[in-house]
Design brief:
This protein is α/β, with parallel strands linked by helices and 216 residues long. The chain has 8 helices and 8 strands; from the N terminus they run βαβαααβαβαβββαβα. Bound molecules: BIS(adenosine)-5'-pentaphosphate, magnesium ion and zinc ion. Magnesium ion (MG) binds next to α1.
């Protein structure tokens, strides 16, 4: 299965990606996770990306495109992948479309998590992430059994530096201006499966698996 998952910051892309990869065992390519890994390792790319990410702006296409393209061209993506966070600008969509045309990649569907923006501030500020295995929790909606500790691996939970009210505002602006046109583009091509992501986690998950059942 070759999928893109797309939606506003806090819509639930990471949360639903965990569900998909657990069930179908396919590579999860999260560009946000890839950047955070580069930042943690203090690579040159990570140092460049950090300031944009913390402000809530998109990392420039000149950095992002070659970085993500290299990952997508690896062998494991030939049979299946779940792409979370790319493409999210028109320039990125053009590169992706070119890869489809050249048959360097395939695509079955774009899962669009459509969410009421009023839900996002609480989702984003309550989010906690495992430093080790990257599992996603929420202090209210999806708490870990022991506060601050990952249920799956015992790793430490942390809060992303861009999960502030101010940065969310900026991320939403970037989403509206740069990513919405990408969703419209995939809609025109007939790839988009829309899911109501304003529901609680269990119901979003049920809607998601209904849609994925039709794709398989
Ligand atoms: P990225 O990491 O992709 O962040 P984002 O798009 O802002 O999305 P989030 O990860 O914040 O939200 P999510 O939809 O994954 O929500 P989650 O499932 O965690 O990117 C970060 C930054 O990197 C960007 O701002 C940009 O700077 C840069 N970047 C990345 N890709 C780029 C690219 N291609 N080009 C340029 N720059 C790029 O859920 C959120 C919380 O809500 C969790 O706590 C979860 O438990 C909870 N939750 C989830 N679903 C529900 C529900 N249905 N009900 C209640 N709670 C829920
Ligand atoms: Mg995410
Ligand atoms: Zn963990």
């Amino acid at each position: 299965m070759k999928l893109i998952i797309i939606g506003a910051p806090g819509a639930g892309k990471g949360t639903m990606s965990e569900e998909i990869i657990n069930k179908y065992n396919i590579p999860h390519i999260s560009t946000g996770d890839m950047f955070r890994d580069q930042i943690a390792r203090q690579t040159e790319l990570g140092l460049k990306a950090k300031e944009y990410i913390e402000r809530g702006e998109l990392v420039p296409d000149s950095i992002t495109i070659s970085f993500v393209k290299e990952r997508l061209l690896q062998d494991d993506c030939k049979t299946s992948y779940l792409l979370d966070g790319f493409p999210r600008s028109e320039a990125q969509a053009e590169v992706f479309a070119q890869m489809l045309e050249n048959k360097e990649l395939g695509l079955d569907a774009v899962i669009y998590l459509e969410v009421d923006f009023s839900k996002l501030i609480e989702r984003v500020t309550g989010r906690r992430i495992c430093r080790n295995c990257k599992s996603v929790y929420h202090t209210v909606f999806s708490p870990s059994k022991v506060e601050g500790v990952c249920d799956k691996c015992g790793g430490e939970l942390y809060q992303r530096p861009d999960d502030t009210e101010e940065s969310l505002k900026q991320r939403l602006e970037a989403y509206n201006e740069e990513t919405m046109p990408v969703i419209k583009y995939f809609e025109k091509l007939g790839y988009v499966k829309k899911i109501d992501a304003s529901q609680d986690i269990e119901n979003v998950k049920a809607s998601l698996f209904e849609v994925l059942g039709d794709i398989k």
